Aspartokinase
Amino acid sequence: MGIVVQKYGGSSVADATSVKRVAQRVVATKKAGHDVVVVVSAMGDTTDDLIDLANQVSPLPPARELDMLLTAGERISMAVLAMAIGNLGQEARSFTGSQAGVITDSEHGRAKIIDVTPGRIETALAEGAIAIVAGFQGVSQTTKDITTLGRGGSDTTAVALAAALGADVCEIYTDVDGIFTADPRIVPTARQIPRISYEEMLEMAANGAKILHLRCVEYARRNDMPIHVRSSFSDKIGTWVVRSEDVILEGQPMEQAIISGVAHDRSESKITVVGVPDQVGFAAAILQALADAQINIDMVVQNVSAAATSLTDISFTLPRADGQTAMTALARLKDEVGYEKLLYDDSVGKVSIIGAGMRSEPGITAKFFRALADADINIAMISTSEIRISVVVAESQVDAAVNAAHTAFDLGTDEVEAVVYGGTGR
Amino acid sequence: MGIVVQKYGGSSVADATSVKRVAQRVVATKKAGHDVVVVVSAMGDTTDDLIDLANQVSPLPPARELDMLLTAGERISMAVLAMAIGNLGQEARSFTGSQAGVITDSEHGRAKIIDVTPGRIETALAEGAIAIVAGFQGVSQTTKDITTLGRGGSDTTAVALAAALGADVCEIYTDVDGIFTADPRIVPTARQIPRISYEEMLEMAANGAKILHLRCVEYARRNDMPIHVRSSFSDKIGTWVVRSEDVILEGQPMEQAIISGVAHDRSESKITVVGVPDQVGFAAAILQALADAQINIDMVVQNVSAAATSLTDISFTLPRADGQTAMTALARLKDEVGYEKLLYDDSVGKVSIIGAGMRSEPGITAKFFRALADADINIAMISTSEIRISVVVAESQVDAAVNAAHTAFDLGTDEVEAVVYGGTGR
């Protein structure tokens, strides 16, 4: 049999009891005949505790040292997991990101993986051992300093290692059964998705589905590495994230569902710059000011100008965490651009329908908007991609909008899934 | 100015406040014009907490993984100290044992330093940065695995780095002002020793003085690296540990004191094998059985046999922690050796007088024993080296014996030192 890479998040290894449960699952996989590589996050709240400690000695800790500090978290969890596996009679060897050959650039706190040279992992597997690898961390190619990969880092480590090792699958363990057609806390009839394409999963992740991080899915797509998202609390088959041509399962209807799922995101806010002169260069100046402030904006809408005034409004969404920074950057532009005023709205939400099938199916937009209209939901902004339609609505109407879309596209089951939807740690 | 290596133990970096205080001392040394390398232990009880965690998942954690786990402790303290120094406006870079070039053998949990290749430290110093190095850890030359050096490891790291870097001095910071002529908790008039030779310090450390670990002093002697033991709570000059020819300070009487200090040790117990046939090979069989059980014995005394019976008693001292193992090993020998019985006594203590001056001074032993006799203290065992005389006495008489020796050799001051004698972490 081949190589299986398994990734366990912080909540799966939160304490000794959880670590022992993970150890049993790992050993069971090994006994089933696979070579097993395990990627772990730091235990429970370790990372937050370490950040607290850093803030106690320095208001703005140097990024290099913060990385050195935070990587202690995975060092602890991986060694403890290796011990727990050893106690079950299987040899396990733990490896830091550097030892596992996770080579990155030098951007501390958000390093990108440049190369993976897992020679020591291959040796460990060849010698019959289970390899435990610290997620979230690597070593800089140029400075040889310890780096961290930022949010979603451990998932990315797992996929990158799986690709470099030529693994059969990268299993991402979490506290839910897989990817759902919508958040089951909002839509009780939401259905687990058996298979989804990388492209659809990317849109889901980019638009609020929190189970997998964008970077990890991108890496998997580029390397054609199947991801199996499943629960660390059960043996159920979860959701496979695969190439679009592999999505259709034998025995299923030959036509793929038009819409795969409904995602939502409450982490954004909306800024409107009111009364911008409708002239070349003013919109660009506004977007440049935001870019200079390192703010990633999501959707942008420029209204048609009122003919009488030649003034227009520009609205955009951005992460709520960046709201203050953005307002400050824009306020500095007031004299230059001569806009009228700024409006800030953090009571918005984004609802997206995602499905590869909409490429070839006309009328999806109309059907989505009619469902929202029938539910008395007002659309503030719209953006689309080839396989996604997103709308911004009032935050108070997000749940209703998700349910309306879910029902309109007939995504639900008759049963109510008894799961809690949540994060995966980092 | 030259390079100064400073080592701070776990109690000196126990929390954010302590770390900030250490940072100020480090920066002050840098501002005085020195290149500064700092070696740190894990914060406070971190190491014990990690050991507890390991024991929760495995009764006998694999040594490789225990080392991986424990080294997380220094990773945390060094990164936090680097941040605190950065916050004072000086650049500090932290380095793991591996990054600092501490190359060891592969004996996990008690690795020996084979080589030190501190290229990255030298680069950091050349670039004007302060280098922070994780104590207690290194990397195996052959397996490239992370290793720990065992007890006293951080002190040894500091001395080894100081030697490899050609430092002017290795400063060991602790919670007392230096090395004293006796434990001031027992002898209120004990005096701080300004200078002591490596050889005397070795005897002090080997016979119960806990401030410096044997290995670190041995390493310093082999490499002629002066150690300055001093308090992290004051700016007082502490005790310099130097070559014997450098002990005599200018302006001091030309003759060195005959006795430098009195050490004591309550960590040993005594086993007596009663009624051993006084024949060739039986004593050897007993000692071999103990060696096979990995027990280091300290003093051994074989009584003259009673002529009538041709039976003898063999007594030896050993660490109390090994008492049970030793008794079990000896019990297995009963039929082979045919001894009468085993006596176990863990209410003993060892008192030693140490001084290079006793080499050329007759009558020291007599004076020591007379002082003990005058204090009604019975001597159970005796051992000597060229510069040390040790006696085993009842544990209840250790304090009286230390005071008797201290007074007899006129070691005290008129003042009472207001210090608390304690350990230095690891």
Notes: Residues 416-426 of chain B have pLDDT under 50 and may be disordered. The radius of gyration of chain B is 23 Å. The domain at 3-174 of chain B is CATH 3.40.1160.10 (Carbamate kinase).
